[in-house]
Amino acid sequence: MMNRHEMLAGRKLAPARLGRVVVLGLGVSGRSCAAYLLDRMGGRVSELVIYAGSPGEEARRWAQDAASRGARVVFDDERVEGSFDLCIASPGISEFSDFYLSAARVSLEGISEVEFAWRESRADSRWVAITGTNGKTTTTALCAHLLNKAGMNACAVGNIGDTCIDAVASDAADVFVAEVSSYQLASTRDFAPEVAVVLNITPDHLSWHRSHENYAAAKWKVLANLAKTPGSLAVLDACDEEVRAKVRELKMRSDEERGFSYLPLGCGRGLDGDMRTVCGSANAAFLAEGSMMRIAFGDEEIDLVRADELLIKGEHNVANALAASAAAVALGADVSAVEAGLRSFGALEHRIEPAGEIDGVACYNDSKATNVDAVLKALVAFRPVKPYILLGGRDKGTDLSPLVAACAEDARGVVCFGESRERFLEAFAPLAEQGVPVDEAVSLEQALDVALARAKRGDVVLLSPACASFDEFSCFEERGDAFKRYVSERAAAAAGR
Fold first, then answer.
1. Of the candidates 179, 265, 328, 397, which lies 20 to 30 Å from 131 by C-alpha distance?
2. Which pairs from 53-62 meet CB under 8 Å and 24+ separation?
3. pTM for the whole thing?
4. pLDDT mean across residues, the chain
5. CATH superfamily, domain at 121-344
6. What fold, for 19-108?
């Protein structure tokens, strides 16, 4: 472990000397960490080694500059050698991989970029950490929006916006609202936000974590150090089964044993003001009479806005808005500013995003829905309309039966496309027998055309793929942008007829 006796004044937990540091990976966060460390070569950093993976042209140019400043960059080697005080691993590198384990054997401590940034941040800075399988980005962006509306200097960081370390280095904010993934949380040690939000935990990223149990354990590390921060709060969506189990666990512990407060959240399954008793907390966030979004902190009940005043679509986004509002109010945001922020926040790209209309058929881009649970939420958001849904990409191997059942109830038709289409076609065969159209397409573009051939004026076509994008695209953003381009091209062609 690092030397805790010589710390930088005015920082959370930053040692005066970082010593010998190795960075694993040269992706976005790895490059940000490396750049930060390069600026401290010859001072706090005595040696910097970067394991950069495959040597692309851009990576080689970057490596040449880093080498000129005293770093050593290693390409095409997945066995770390040497001796280091600190290892900072990029989120794409599994802590169970041989590469990571080789680094762990020769490093006194291994942490994530989020942990590193938190340690290096100002002692008086405040952090909100938002995690969950789905909804993280919307909740993070909305929380930062609400805090800024309230006049607080906040920025969204992590998997959205700047990397955490870039934001810390630029002294960009007083409040960091961090979207944190299971990858990032897995290698946290001391990370202690003021507010931790856990939205949901459903099977995902199992190839990285090796099991759902490991995945869930990584997510729950967001609560590990809350007790070290006075007045800290956990916001927990009690509609999710696994999160509700954690609420039950917290209820069994005394305030002194727990060391932090928690606020259960619910906007479904009958969860209302009574959930304070059920969940063992004086705090709660829920939908009250007339779909009023209400937050309770002890005896104080705060009415915000009606759910139908939100610009973002779907019951899951009501839950996201409640979570973001609870975090903002807990940090001291003025309620009237929170109300204004809720009314002005629009849909994010690739998250049930309106993509245009073709001959009266509305198209929506939900490319970020890369797992089954996200698609289930999207389908519910369109009720009572039943969309033609485009499913496919690189298969994650998750159970498709809940998706088949949901499409039987809430989809007008299904188009299976991409690398995963054969497994999806097999899974959805019972729907075809029930009269629900189930079609096949090789590519996303072809899938759109297949759906449009069936759709009539007033129908909806929804890209909500339940798969990763890597069979056809480099990321979900590229896939979503391509879908919007295909829609735009066909809308223009239809208008020109």
1. 397
2. 53/25, 53/26, 59/26, 62/26, 62/31
3. 0.78
4. 91
5. Mur-like, catalytic domain (3.40.1190.10)
6. Rossmann fold (3.40.50)
